[in-house]
């Protein structure tokens, strides 16, 4: 599975299988993306390999949070990295070149959902906080 940033400076591969995918409604994701939620998929340790443009990848690590990595050329959001292990934790679904073959199955941080866009009644599993037991609150 391949993906890239918008300007294609950063290209990457993800080894299957992909884990669970979901929407994050936390305030960080809202501000990071400018949208009501961010769609991402969990990946296995060591599954992501940058094939070009590694020198353009930048990151920001919030207090008590995972590092958000993006392309320094176009600003595209790529993935979250666990600051403790240094491993990519989840990949932004919009960065894949083609259908990743998984669909979001949950919504997390719905307690922080944007007032201007109600969370749809789509039958997906909902979590007031994090869906990942091993992740800190608001870390995706």
N- to C-terminal separation?
21 Å
Number of DSSP E strands: 11
- How is the main sheet built? 8 strands, mixed
Strand-residue proportion: 25-35%
Q: What count of domains describes the coordinates?
A: 1
Report mean pLDDT, rounded to a whole number: 93
Shape: globular
- Secondary-structure element string: EEEHEEEEEEEE
CATH architecture: Beta Complex
CATH class: Mainly Beta
> Treating each run of at least 4 consecutive H or I residues as one helix, how many helices?
1
CATH topology: Metal Binding Protein, Guanine Nucleotide Exchange Factor, Chain A
* C-alpha Rg (nearest Å): 14 Å
| Structural class by helix and strand composition | mainly beta
Helix content: under 10%
Keywords:
140 residues, Metal Binding Protein, Guanine Nucleotide Exchange Factor, Chain A, 5% helix, disordered C terminus
Quick take:
With 140 residues, the protein is mainly beta.
Chart the SSEs and their pairings:
Layout: E1 2-4, E2 11-14, E3 21-24, H1 27-33, E4 38-42, E5 48-52, E6 57-60, E7 67-71, E8 77-81, E9 88-92, E10 104-108, E11 125-126
Parallel strand pairs: 3-10, 10-11
Antiparallel strand pairs: 1-2, 2-5, 3-4, 4-9, 6-7, 7-8, 8-9
Protein model, in words:
By secondary structure, this protein is mainly beta. It has one helix at 27-33; strands spanning 2-4, 11-14, 21-24, 38-42, 48-52, 57-60, 67-71, 77-81, 88-92, 104-108, 125-126. The strands form 2 sheets. An 8-stranded mixed β-sheet has the order 6-7-8-9-4-3-10-11. The chain has a 3-stranded antiparallel β-sheet with strand order 1-2-5, with no helix packed on it. The radius of gyration is 14 Å and the shape is globular.
């Amino acid at each position: 599975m391949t993906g890239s940033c918008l300007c294609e400076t950063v290209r990457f591969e993800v080894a299957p299988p992909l884990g669970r995918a979901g929407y994050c409604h936390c305030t960080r994701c809202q501000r990071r993306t400018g949208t009501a939620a961010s769609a991402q998929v969990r990946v296995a340790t060591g599954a992501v390999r940058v094939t070009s443009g590694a020198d353009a990848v930048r990151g920001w690590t919030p207090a008590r949070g995972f590092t958000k990595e993006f392309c320094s050329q176009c600003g595209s959001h790529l993935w979250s990295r666990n600051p403790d292990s240094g491993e990519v934790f989840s990949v932004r679904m919009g960065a894949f070149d083609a259908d990743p073959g998984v669909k979001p199955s949950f919504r997390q941080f719905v307690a922080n959902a944007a007032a201007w866009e109600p969370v749809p009644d789509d039958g997906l599993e909902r979590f007031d906080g994090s869906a990942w037991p091993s992740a800190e609150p608001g870390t995706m």
